[in-house]
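sorry for the late reply, my laptop died twice this morning and i had to redo everyting from scratch. anyway the thing you sent over, i finally got around to it. pasting the sequence first so we're on the same page, its 225 residues, then the predicted structure underneath. double check i copied it right bc i was rushing
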Amino acid sequence: MYRRPAAVAVLLAAALTLTACSSDGGKADSGADAKAKPPASSAVPDPADTPAPSTDPDAKPTGPVVPDAKLTPKTGSFTAQEKQYLSGRVPEKMDPAAVLQGGHEACQRVERTAKHDKDAATGSIIAGEIPGAKDAIPLLCPDQKPILAAAEKGFPDGTRQSPAAGNYRALTQATTCKWEAKGKDGATLAAGPEATPKPGDKITAAISAGTAEFTSTGCYAWIPA
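ok and here's the structure:
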């Protein structure tokens, strides 16, 4: 008769202990937000809290940069052209050679593309697909200046305000290329192509004087014909 109360007390104490543990565990595991980020002690940073570094060679530093007099590699030396390219482009505490590599890579991409298709190389610069090419070519790969010169006369697919009058050629073989030229009053001055192009056909557009807006889709880029 005297053992039953003791057993009840033991069971009650155990139940209270389990309830407390269950309550704490519920708070730790409840809600989807609890699993949204790693724990504070985790060595893995949360991607949302870590800004992605800029890899665009065209991006200029917004903070202090390495003075020109200190633009020296860890080994060897830079040429005069390489130093000119790096001037004002290397953030403090960054290896100038790493920045220079980005410029050389842009040149290599232009060179490889131009070797197979000069129009493709020109279009890739116009469309911004080879970041850093416009700054790198004059100093790091001047043999590609003709490609850059052609790109500087063109413009990318999309909408262009007040384009220079003339005949232009689309740097694409896509049959979905379409264009339209409008005047200041919004009226269509010309549109094309007149017939659905066949694969390999050259697509041209005649932009007349007074064109206020030229819009194209699926044409990649345009250069003077």
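Confidence is low (pLDDT under 50) at residues 1-57.
thats about all i looked at so far, will dig more tmrw
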